[in-house]
């Protein structure tokens, strides 16, 4: 019996941001294909890779492969198609301006005590909600001045990479096409 293919989204942190960790998406696609992944696609230049595999995929394996090939050390957060769909479905800020909404994707679900210890009110009017391994960020004044994502990232002690809502919605559409 043939093992079914699982579609994954690899979210690389800090790639092509502010001129740092420059990585051509064509090179990244080619590398993913060369290490055995199928139907490899990328979305925009910030390190979003959609691919399929019959085998379980680990973030650590992808990080090592990227470091070995490109000499770039970057955290990779993985999500399956089902997990991306759940992220979209669970959006606690669905009634707010989606242009101000972001999602922080955590490598793993944080412990409840760490979430309970977050002091989010100090960042008002910015808001955050942690739902399993996603951090929904509503930043009405934009990301440039907000310190909320950095605070949450440090306090939860889990690799987090942030995408704006339009990117999340497009990844959902691309993985469900």
Key structural traits:
32% helix, Alpha-Beta Plaits, 2 domains, 4-stranded antiparallel sheet, 8 strands
Structural class: alpha+beta
The global form is globular
Q: What's the end-to-end separation, in Å? A: 26 Å
CATH class of the largest domain: Alpha Beta
Low-confidence stretches: none
What is the CATH topology assignment of the largest domain? Alpha-Beta Plaits
CATH H level, superfamily name of the largest domain: SP0830-like domains
Q: Give the spatial strand order of the biggest sheet.
A: 2-3-1-4
What Rg, in angstroms, do the CA atoms define? Answer: 16 Å
Can you tell me the number of structural domains? Answer: 2
Q: Order of helices and strands, N to C?
A: EHEEHEHEHEEHEH
Assembly classification? single chain
What is the makeup of the main sheet?
4 strands, antiparallel
Helix fraction bin: 25-40%
**CATH architect. name of the largest domain:** 2-Layer Sandwich
State mean pLDDT (0 to 100 scale). Answer: 94
Q: In what range is the share of β-strand residues?
A: 25-35%
Question: How many helices?
Answer: 6
Structural notes for this entry:
This protein folds into two domains: 6-82, SP0830-like domains (Alpha-Beta Plaits, 2-Layer Sandwich); 89-164, Alpha-Beta Plaits (2-Layer Sandwich). The chain is built from six helices and eight strands. It has helices at residues 25-34, 59-70, 81-89, 112-116, 148-156, 165-175; strands at residues 6-12, 38-43, 48-53, 76-80, 101-106, 127-131, 134-138, 160-164. The strands form two sheets. The protein has a four-stranded antiparallel β-sheet, sandwiched between helices. Strands 6-7-5-8 form a four-stranded antiparallel β-sheet. The longest helix has 12 residues, at 59-70.
């Amino acid at each position: 019996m043939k093992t079914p293919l699982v579609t994954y989204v690899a979210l690389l942190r800090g790639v092509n941001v502010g001129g740092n960790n420059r990585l051509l998406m064509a090179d990244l696609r080619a590398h993913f294909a060369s290490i055995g992944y199928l139907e490899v696609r990328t979305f925009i230049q910030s390190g979003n890779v959609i691919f399929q595999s019959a085998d379980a995929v680990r973030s650590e394996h992808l990080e090592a492969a990227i470091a070995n090939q490109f000499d770039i050390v970057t955290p990779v957060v993985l999500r399956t198609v089902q997990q991306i769909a759940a992220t979209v479905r669970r959006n606690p800020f669905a009634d707010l301006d989606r242009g101000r909404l972001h999602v922080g994707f955590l490598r793993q679900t944080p412990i409840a005590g760490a979430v309970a210890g977050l002091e989010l009110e100090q960042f008002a009017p910015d808001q955050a909600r942690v739902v399993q391994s996603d951090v929904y960020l509503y930043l009405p004044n934009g990301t440039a001045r907000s310190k909320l994502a950095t605070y949450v990232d440090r306090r939860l002690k889990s690799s987090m990479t942030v995408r704006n809502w339009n990117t999340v919605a497009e990844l959902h559409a691309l993985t469900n096409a």
